[in-house]
Amino acid sequence: MDWIVEVVRSPFDTKFLILIMFMGAGAAFIYKSGGIIALQNWIGHRVNTARDSQILTWLIGIFIFFDSYTSTIVTGNATRELSQENNTSREMHAYVLDSTTSPVTTFGPVSNWIGYQVSMIIVGFEAARFTAEEVGITAFGLFLQSIPWNIYCFLAFFMVGFISITQRFYGPMLNAEWRARKEKKTRRDDATPLSDITTDVGEPSEKNPTLINFFAPILSLLVVGLVSMWWLGGGHQSGVDIATAFQETDVALGLLYGSFAFMAVGMLGAVGFGTMDLEEASDTVISGFKTMMIAAAIIVLAWSIGHAADQVGTAQYIVDVMVDSSIPGSFLPLLIFLAAMFIAFTTGTSWGTMAILTPLAIPLGYEMSGLSILPVLMGVLFGGAIWGDHVSPISDTTVMSSIFAGSDHIDHVTTQIPFAMTAAGVTVLMLLLYAVGVTSPLVLLPLSVVLTAGAVIALNKFDARRKNLPEVMPTTDAIDNGEIDVDAIENGSKTDGTRINGRYSFVESIPLTAVGIVIAYLCLVFGFMTLGF
Asked: Is residue 310 part of a domain?
C-alpha cells in the first residue's frame, strides 16, 4: 500500500492523473455539445459506401490522437450510424477503431500515452542506475528516438487504411464483410453486442450543432500542449533551440496545460453556442471524469507493478542472467518484442506490460549493447505491448472498441487477430534483419510497409479463392443491381466473364483526402521525432 501511495504522490504521476481527467472532460464536451452531430451533417451525405465509412472512421481516429479511450468513444459514436447504413460489418468497424486509436495515440504528437511512456522510461533510467545527464539524453528525447522503431504500430495503422481503401479482406473478416454486403446483416444472427457505456455522458445535444465544437478543442490541445512543452523546456530563452527545448521540457506539465485548454475550450464552445447551459456543462465535466476512471485505475496499478519490480530487484536479476547467457545483443530487440507480446496478451494491458518490461529492457540493453540500442528496445517494446492489446479478449481498449462499434466482442477479437498477426509477422522479420546487421530504420520501415502490402494482397487472394468469395468486396448496390453474379459465386460456377469483384476508383474525394491527411499526419509525427536527434 505504501508503494501505491508513493507512485500516486510522485509529481510526474500526479500531473498525469489530473491531465487524463481533463482529457475525459474535453472529449465529453466534443461529444455532448453536438460536435459529432455537426461532423455527421457535414460529411454524412458524401459517405455512400461501406468503403467510404471505413475510411472516414480511420480519418477521424487520426484527428483524435490524444487518448485511445477518447478516440474510441468519439470516433465510434461519430461513425457508427454511417457504417450501419452503408453495410459495414460491426466486426470491421471495431477493427478500424481498435487498430487506429492505440497506434495513433502512441505517436502523438500530444497524448497521455506519450506522458505515460516517458514516465516508464524515467523508471527505466532509475532501474539502470544512471541519469539523463550521465548518458546525454532525456527520457523524452529517448522516446522521440524510439518512434521509427515502433514498427508494429506503423504497420497496424497502415493496414487499416490499406484494407479499407482496397477492400481486400481475409480470414474471418472476409466472411463478415460478405455477409454484411450480401445479406445486409452487419452482425451475425446469434451475435451478442456489448452494452453501450455512453450513459456516462448522455446523448449529444441537437441544439445548434457546430463544427467549431469539434475542431476548436482539439486544436487548442495541440497548440497549447506543444507551446507549453516548448516554453517549459526553455525555448523562449535565447540560445535554446527547439530540439533542446523539447528534450528538456516537463512533459507531464505541458500536457496538463494542453488538456486543461482542451476542456476549457470545449466548455466555452458548448455554453457559448447555446448547446447546453452552465449547469449541464458542469455536469458534463464530472461525466467526462467518470469515463477516465477505468484508465486511471489501470495506470495506478501499472505504476505499482513497475515500482514493486524495482523494489525486489527484478531488473538487476534479469540483466545478470541475460548478460551471462551469451545471447548476442543484436537479438535483444526481437526478444523484447516477443516478451511484450506475450505479457500484453496474457494480462490484457499494454500499459501494464510497459510497466513490467521497461525497467528490465533499459538496464539490460545498456549493459549488453550500450546507449545506441535503447531507442530500438523502447520502440519494439511499445509496439509489442499494443499488439497484445489488439489480440487479447481481456484488453480494455479491445472491449471498448467492441462496445462503441456495437460488435459481438469475440467476433471482433477473432476477425482482428489475422490482421494483427500479419503486422507482427512482418515486424519479427524486420527485427531478424536488424539482428544480422540491417540497423537503419530508413531501410527497415519502408521495407516493412511494402512487405505488409504484399502480404495483405497475397493472403486476400488465397483466402478468397479458398472460400470462393470476391477478392475485392463489392458494394451492396452492385450486388442489388445485379452487377455482381452472386449465384456464380455461391455455386462455384464462375467463368472468366463473370463479374464477382467490386470496382472502385481511387481518384475520389474520400480516398484522396484520406491519403493527403495521412501524409500530413506522418509528416507531423516525423517532424516531431526529429526533435530527439
From this structure: yes
- Residue bearing cell 516531431: 528
Q: Are 98 and 412 in contact (CB under 8 A)?
A: yes
Number of Cβ atoms within 10 Å of the Cβ of 344: 28
Q: How many CB atoms lie within 10 A of CB 422?
A: 21
Distance, CA of 483 to chain centre:
37
Decide if 276 contacts 284 (C-beta within 8 A). yes
Could you tell me which residues are beta bridge partners of residue 193?
A: 408
141 in a domain, yes or no?
A: yes
Domain that holds residue 96: 1-467+503-530
Residue 331, C-beta contacts closer than 8 angstroms, at least 6 positions apart: 435
The answer to the question of residue 168 being in a domain is yes
CB 157 within 8 A of CB 104: yes
Residue whose grid cell is 478468397: 464
Nearest-Å Rg of the Cα atoms of the chain is 23
Place of cell 452503408: 86
Give the C-alpha distances (Å, rounded to integers) separating 309 from 77, 164, 306, 312: 39, 42, 5, 5
Does residue 406 belong to any structural domain of this protein? yes
- Residue carrying the nine cell digits 479478449: 393
> In sequence order, which residues have a C-beta less than 8 Å from that of residue 390 and are 6 or more positions away?
98, 99, 102, 156, 398, 416, 420
Q: Output b/e per residue, 70-80; b: 16+ Cβ within 10 A.
A: bbbbbbbbbbb
In Å, how far are 37, 64, 72, 81, 93 from 78, measured between CA atoms? 7, 12, 10, 8, 12
- Alpha-carbon distance of 305 to 317, in angstroms, equals 16
Rounded Cα distance, 533 and 90, in Å: 42
Domains in the chain: how many in total?
1
Q: How confident is the model over 300-346, as pLDDT tens digits?
A: 877 787 778 778 877 667 667 766 677 788 999 999 999 899 888 88
List strand residue ranges (DSSP E) for 348-497, in order.
none
Residue 532 near residue 249, CB atoms below 8 Å? no
> Can you give the pTM of this predicted structure?
0.82
Give the model's confidence band at 201: pLDDT under 50 very low, under 70 low, under 90 confident, else very high. low
CB 349 within 8 A of CB 299: no
- Taking each helix axis from N to C end, the angle separating 396-405 and 90-107, rounded to the nearest 10 degrees, works out to 130
Backbone CA torsion sign across 385, 386, 389, 391 = negative
Closest CA to 96 of 59, 149, 125: 59
pLDDT in tens, 391-434: 988 787 887 788 778 888 889 999 999 999 999 999 999 999 99
DSSP 394-453: T-HHHHHHHHHHT-BHHHHHHHHHHHHHHHHHHHHHHHHHHHTT---HHHHHHHHHHHHH
Distance, first Cα to last Cα, the chain? 40
Percentage helix, strand, coil for the chain under 3-state DSSP, each rounded to 5: 75, 0, 25
Please give the grid coordinates belonging to residue 263.
476542456
